[in-house]
UniProtKB/TrEMBL annotation:
It comes from the Eukaryota. Keywords: Carbohydrate metabolism, Fucose metabolism, Glycoprotein, Glycosyltransferase, Membrane, Signal, Transferase, Transmembrane, Transmembrane helix. GO terms for biological process: fucose metabolic process. This is O-fucosyltransferase family protein. Residues 1-37 form the signal peptide. Its main location: membrane. It is a single-pass membrane protein. Belongs to the glycosyltransferase GT106 family. Coiled coil: none annotated.
Length: 511
């Protein structure tokens, strides 16, 4: 689904952050926008009906046998996290100056930028000023680094590798976002190529550090190569991503509360009058203590961009076409293809109904605890309800936490995403209905911890859903067969691929 990555360049024009105004918004995060979708226009759908009724009927009556195996953790795959003695950290004798970066994109894109910023500062023997996060026009969250990540933990974990400062020395009081936004500045680096080499930074940024003592790099997303990097630099990037970056305590606390509720909530809502306060030791009650996190990005933006038909009839088709016209002036590569062509190539995001059928076919029964990591679903409850009929024990942030508990994160896309990330990392099984930054971040982090992650075989599913004569047993067999090796089996990183998605071998040591 590479097309998704190159698409949304229109957003560059709408950028709020001063830097990104000047440059194309190359790699937008695919994380679900929260407040961006316009208020739903009711006439837009004729309440989308299930598209795969035959399969759905069988799925609702399914008998499952293979549940035990599904929940089994992955066996050791021969890789472990490296110990410090494998690659001992070293601090430069003298700092060569300060590196300052401004990061755009959603939470997961910024996360990679933070890791790369640490690496670049290290390459240059410089100190790093805490990375500054730009406000994304889609996600509209002005949260800063320290609102999302535990900044003291960050500095402390990396203290033997690099010096990181929360504030710039007084000499550099002038080095602000506004300063760089208002004129061309000699110490601003804005020409870092995508996937620049370590040498590029040494040749182009070291002299700036020498002259000015500080270099501000923006844009900085995807500006450090994954290949031909010194081993210690790769290792440091991984250490940042998998060890130094943890969320602020209130996100972790809320996440822990959600996780414990997911694990030990009674299966019958009604049987607990005070269900938001169910405590951990009521585990005797119900549930096997296991849960699946489903990341479902199915918002209007993605639906429109995919140019697929999602069964909402003429009204929906027109609404999506109009959206494509307004946002991309109709220039959407996928719209050259028919729905059938797109589906058979696996280029259509799975609808809630389809991801439900996939999970059912894999063997999850109606007692499966499902946590929906998702913000807005295009088509709303009409679409969600089909998924809920297959998995009645489906929960999300709203159903699991009171509005008081959610007060700190309300309306803050990055914090909501952080919470979903945290819960996702603690799930027995994670599955994403569409590729994107969240999916990649999770796949990488869960690989690092050898946790189970199901990767939907989009092309296979597209073809299966097109075949209207398929019976449930046939569908099920094909799904099971087609996902045998897509449940967390290790994949080695190939050249050009991200170490944050494929942490083996760069980030890990053989066991
Ligand atoms: C950084 O420091 C190391 C060791 O002190 C040195 O070998 C290297 O050349 C320095 N690099 C830069 C860009 O200053
Ligand atoms: C699950 O399905 C069985 C029958 O297949 C039904 O008896 C049971 O009530 C269902 N459970 C839930 C939570 O819907
Ligand atoms: C649909 O599935 C049936 C049963 O597996 C198969 O015989 C048929 O060839 C498939 N049709 C298409 C168009 O692939």
């Amino acid at each position: 689904m590479r097309h998704l990555h190159t698409s949304h360049s229109h957003r560059g024009g709408a950028m709020v952050g001063a830097f990104v105004l000047l440059l194309p918004f190359l790699f937008p995060s695919l994380f679900t926008p929260l407040s961006h979708a316009s208020p739903s226009i009711l006439s837009e759908w004729n309440a989308p009906k299930p598209r795969h009724l035959r399969l759905l009927k069988s799925a609702l009556q399914r008998q499952t046998s293979n549940e035990q195996q599904l929940w089994m953790p992955l066996a050791n795959q021969g890789w472990k996290t490296c110990s410090e003695s494998d690659i001992p950290p070293t601090l430069p004798e003298k700092s060569q100056g300060y590196i300052q970066v401004f990061l755009d994109g959603g939470l997961n894109q910024q996360r990679m930028g933070i890791c790369d910023a640490v690496a670049v500062a290290k390459i240059l023997n410089a100190s790093l000023f805490i990375p500054q996060l730009e406000v994304n026009p889609v996600w509209q969250d002005s949260s800063m680094f320290m609102d999302i990540f535990d900044v003291d933990h960050f500095i402390n974990v990396l203290k033997d590798d690099i010096s990181i400062v929360k504030e710039l020395p007084d000499d550099f009081y002038w080095s602000t976002r506004e300063y760089y936004a208002t004129a061309i500045r000699a110490n601003r680096v804005k020409t870092a190529p995508v996937h620049a080499s370590a040498n590029w930074y040494i040749e182009n940024v070291s002299p700036i550090l020498k002259s000015y003592g500080i270099a501000a790099i923006a844009p900085f997303s995807h500006r450090l190569a994954f290949d031909n990097m010194p081993k210690d630099i790769q290792h440091l990037r991984c250490k940042v991503n998998f060890q130094a970056l943890v969320f602020v305590p209130h996100i972790r606390a809320l996440g822990d509360a959600l996780i414990s509720r997911l694990k030990y909530l009674p299966t019958e809502r009604e049987s607990s009058t005070n269900y938001l306060n169910v405590v951990t030791d009521s585990r005797s009650k119900q549930g096997n203590g296991k849960f699946v996190v489903l990341h479902l990005r199915f918002d209007k933006d993605m639906a429109a961009h995919s140019a697929c038909d999602f069964g909402g009839g003429k009204a929906e088709k027109l609404a999506l076409a109009k959206y494509r016209q307004v946002i991309w002036q109709g220039r959407v590569l996928n719209s050259q293809f028919t729905d059938e062509e797109l589906r058979s190539q696996g280029r259509c995001p799975l609808t809630p109904e389809e991801i439900g059928l996939l999970l059912a076919a894999l063997g999850f029964d109606n007692s499966t605890r499902l946590y929906l990591a998702s913000h807005k679903v295009y088509g709303g409850e009409a679409r969600i309800s089909t998924l809920r009929s297959l998995f009645p024990l489906m929960e999300d942030k709203k159903s699991l936490a009171s509005s008081e508990e959610r007060a700190h994160i309300k309306g803050k896309a990055s914090l909501l995403a952080a919470l979903d990330y945290y819960v996702g990392m603690h799930s027995d099984i994670f599955i994403s209905a569409s590729p994107g930054n969240m999916h990649n971040a999770m796949v990488g982090h869960r690989t690092y911890l050898n946790l189970k992650t199901i990767r939907p075989n989009m092309a296979l599913l597209g073809q299966l859903f097109l075949n209207k004569s398929l019976t449930w047993p046939e569908f099920q067999e094909a799904v099971v067969e087609g996902h045998k090796n897509r449940q967390g089996q290790l994949r080695l990183r190939k050249p050009k691929k991200s170490i944050y998605t494929y942490p083996v071998p760069d980030c890990m040591c053989s066991a």
